Amino acid sequence: MSVTSRSGFMSELGLARPAAVGAILVVAIALQSTVLTKVTLLGVIPQLLFVVVISLAMLEGERVGVVVGFFAGLIQDFLLPQSVTGLTALEYTFIGYVVGMIRYYLPSQSVWMPVFVVALASAFAEGTYAILAIIMGQRWVSIGYTAKVAGLVILYNTLLTPFVYPVIKRIADRVRPERVVRI
Prior knowledge:
CATH architecture: Orthogonal Bundle
Largest sheet: 2 strands, antiparallel
Number of strands: 2
Shape: globular
Order of helices and strands: EHHHHHHHE
CATH topology: Arp2/3 complex 21 kDa subunit ARPC3
Number of helices: 7
Helix content: 55-70%
C-alpha cells in the first residue's frame, strides 16, 4: 500500500513542477518588462527574474537553480538591448548553482536569510557581470557608476525579496513531488 496525497492530471504526469516554474518565469518576465520598468532609477530596473532564481535555488536546490538560472538569464539577455547574449545566462546559472549548494548550510526558518542571500548574490552578480562584460569587449563606464548601479540593484532586489520569496515558497511547496511511502 502506498500513501500519496496529491492527485491531478499534471501531478500524475510529473508536469506540475515544470509547469509551475515556467509560469513563474513568464509572470516574472512580464512584470519585469512592463510594471517594473516604470520604477527605474539611473536606468536600473529591479531584477525580478534574479530574485526568482535565488528564491527557487534556495527552496529547491542546485539542479533547479541551474536550470531556472539558465533560462531566466537567457530571457534577460534577450531583453537587454546592449548585452552580450549568454552572459547573464552564465551568471544566473552559476549563482543558481552556488545558492542551491549553500542552502543546506543556511538556517531555514530565518525570515531575513532570503533577503541576505539575495543581497549578497546581487553584489556578486553585479561585480562579476562588470568584469565579464569588460572581458567580452563591452565598453566600461567607471568604477563609480558601476558601484552606483550595483548599490541600486542590491537595494531593489532586497526590497523585492520579502514580497517574492513567500509567494515562490508557497508555489514550490504546493508542487513539490512527495515521496511515496510504502507500507
